[in-house]
Amino acid sequence: MQRFKTFLLILMSGISTYASQSELITNVDGRKTVSLNGKWEVIIDPFETGYYDYRYLPSANGFFKNIKAKDKSDRIEYSFEKDNILNVPGDWNTQREMLFFYEGTIWYKKSLDYNLKAGRRVFLYFGAANYKANVYLNGTLLGENVGGFTPFNFEITNLVRAKDNCVIVKVDNKRSRDAVPTVNFDWHNYGGLTRRVTLIDVPQTTIMDYFIQLKKDTTDTVAGWVRLDGPDREQDIIIEIPKAQVKKTFRTNSSGYAEFSFRKELELWSPENPRLYEVIVKAETDSITDYIGFRSICTQNTNILLNGESVYLRGICIHEEAPLANGGRAFSKEHARTLLGWAKELGCNFVRLAHYPHNEHMVQTADEMGIMVWSEIPVYWTILWENESTFENAKNQLTKMITRDKNKASIIFWSMANETPLSKPRLRFLKNLAAHARSLDATRLITAAMERHYVDDKTLMIEDPFCEFVDVLGCNQYVGWYDGLPEKCGGIEWKNAYDKPVIITEFGGGALYGYHGDELTRWTEEFQESLYRQNIEMLAKVPFIKGLSPWILKDFRSPKRLLPRIQDYWNRKGLITDEGQKKKAFYILQDFYRNKANLQQ
Questions:
Q1: Does residue 381 sit in the same domain as residue 357?
Q2: What span, in angstroms and rounded, lies between the C-alpha atoms of 432 and 268?
Q3: d(CA 509, CA 445)
Q4: Which one of 8, 206, 258, 407 is CB 3.0 to 4.6 Å from 202, fit for a cystine?
Q5: 209: closest CA among 293, 290, 119?
Q6: CATH code at position 587
Q7: pTM for the full model?
Q8: Which residues form the domain of 470?
Q9: Are residues 311 and 444 part of one domain?
Q10: How many Cβ atoms are within 10 Å of 247's Cβ, its own excluded?
């Protein structure tokens, strides 16, 4: 009923509506593209004047008709101006001081020419927009996207003109109780077109999507599928891996879909040898090239097995925040290389990308550098577990995360949530997400970052009903920071209610770089150093713990962190400052990881 009411409102508003969001196109970098990155004209619209009429009905119709004066007597109350711009990709918060805490609507406008050749199709692709985006082309509403960290696209083949196209995007980052994440989260709510915008030009019948990985529980069988979209769906498909002398032919059915499987011994991807093969997928009407690593990941009792060998995950958590300079949302290859380079310097073979899907460059660079990845959706803290639209929102974000990155060898975990309090509705919600993830990708491990509880004063138990439905148990714990002082670590015993491996997905404490004192003075580098030393000594003794990802690589912005002269709206738990300076605790973890790596060699 609510959807029907919304539809009626749109009809009443007079907006020309073209289509809903198109199915997501994968491997953007393997296709013919035209970048729309750069300077976009903007209108800052905190009351959404350009969207609602005076009766508060959604209507951008008048907005589009009245952004340029016809003559001197014409009444104009809002206008895109060439000196009022924001850079795309980029958040608006760090581009203008007045927008640092802004939560609301900003309209973006880009003009372009595009000569679409006969027999071709074109899609308008967004890497992400935080949080809700309404997209218009030449005054026609293409559709809406909800969710701030996953890509979306619209086919514009029948709307694009050779000259004078106008793309307008309404981006709204206001928090809401029924959203994913909800109103309460511990990072900066960066708004805007935070990732790339591009046109994707493809043949009439195109390779829309494909999945090419090692079959689950094997190291010598490549399996997957290819899906075509367009009028000519029954075609021969050739999978080529030139360096491995592979050339296999399959046939799609009337729906454009073909599954395949073949035996082949390949050089396996690992942190020590991040081997990527050129893989070519050819149809009769289209061809696309990707670079794919092949590896297996599974569990055996409390062990995690990479390519059949037990592995210890030497990790760190990372937020998608740019290193150095002015910070803000990370979006570039250079940002990824710096952040993951710091992780490699720390001795990591693993990173937890918290608490949402990061940009494509992060997982591409992890593939190239040999870093295993935990990828997560922002089901965070206390969302509305019984709200059906909230679940559909989370499921949609999960689908897009897996769709975009399922061919990346570096990703070994799909994470369903972080620190969610126990309840029956929560369990049902997460169970359904886990089942959906497995239906999309059976080759990777399912997990979540959960919590622990005390059985008595000295015994911490990992026990959560959701543990029954995951492969690896993530556990956040803050002994020494929120839970007593660091010396408490020496008296703790850990227990696991399940015969499954555990990763300590968070531990740590805050320190202001350059602030020094003794080991009991909170916020000093010495306190953080002692906390790391004693946590590592505690956790290294627990046999079922198979990895760590302490919180966090780099200090990051958060409006929840208010302490003057110490936090100043920064979460200071980073081992590195926003300017790249390493705190003393960095070297404690680095020494531990180097010793772990030497033992595994």
A1: yes
A2: 32
A3: 29
A4: 206
A5: 290
A6: 3.20.20.80
A7: 0.94
A8: 298-600
A9: yes
A10: 12
